[in-house]
Amino acid sequence: MKTTIQDKAKLVNSVFSEVYNKYDLMNDILSLGIHRIWKDKFIDWMNPSRDSSLIDVASGTGDIAKKFALRNKNLSIVTCIEPNEDMFKIGKKNLVNFKNIKWIKSRAESLPVEDSMYDFYSISYGIRNVSDINKTLKEAYRVLKPGGRFMCLEFSKIDNELLNFLYKNYSKAIPTLGKYIAGSSKPYEYLINSIDSFYNQEQLLELIRKNGFTNVEYRNLSNGISAIHSGWKI
Ligand SMILES: C[S@@+](CC[C@H](N)C(=O)[O-])C[C@H]1O[C@@H](n2cnc3c(N)ncnc32)[C@H](O)[C@@H]1O
Prior knowledge:
- By secondary structure, the chain is of the alpha/beta class.
- It has helices at 5-19, 23-31, 34-46, 63-71, 85-94, 133-143, 161-182, 186-196, 201-210, and strands at 54-57, 78-81, 101-104, 118-124, 144-155, 214-221, 226-232.
- It is globular and about 45 Å long.
- Residues 12, 16, 57-60, 63-64, 81-84, 87, 107-109, 124-126, 129-131 line the site of S-adenosylmethionine.
């Protein structure tokens, strides 16, 4: 059966409404805390200057916005975009002391912000979850200033056979871990399937390029378990 855009949006929304209160804990457990290092590397590669503005899309509990704001000594304007009511509430609460961070409940495919507003656009473990990736990339292009930079952090394809074998076997245990720790296996089945069926590094690079960005490149993290893609609006 074909999954429609509405089906995917509904499914993804229900997944995050089921896991929101254990989201950060599960991230730490499932990645053994390594997601924090990947997110630091993401901000390192961004290398924002003090007055750079950021729109962080699919913000979830706010990790990227927080790291960016701390790096910039809270001097820059940051907008967080998050459509899921439960994730939105937690994210906003987590970052309540960051006065320069504004939250908007919205989807990546249609951003309620003007054209050419931001120096950076970030999407961390979000692009795999959007319903329409081309619309998402076009919106990213629209809201960036000329000279602005698109940055995406996402699970990707492993370039090492042994690690791939180990990772695939570990993945099979993730839904069971989800059941015992977070109370449900379904969201973690979705996680594994969505990672499996998502684009590889080169395919994602090509999509970003097709949607207008130049100098598109990527860096693998931990042999491609995750990858960072970067592209520029010239
Ligand atoms: C895996 S979480 C990532 C959260 C955070 N960025 C991080 O790196 O930990 C994915 C987030 O994407 C959000 N999301 C799902 N569909 C979306 C869409 N169409 N537009 C924007 N965000 C979406 C979910 O609600 C969820 O909070």
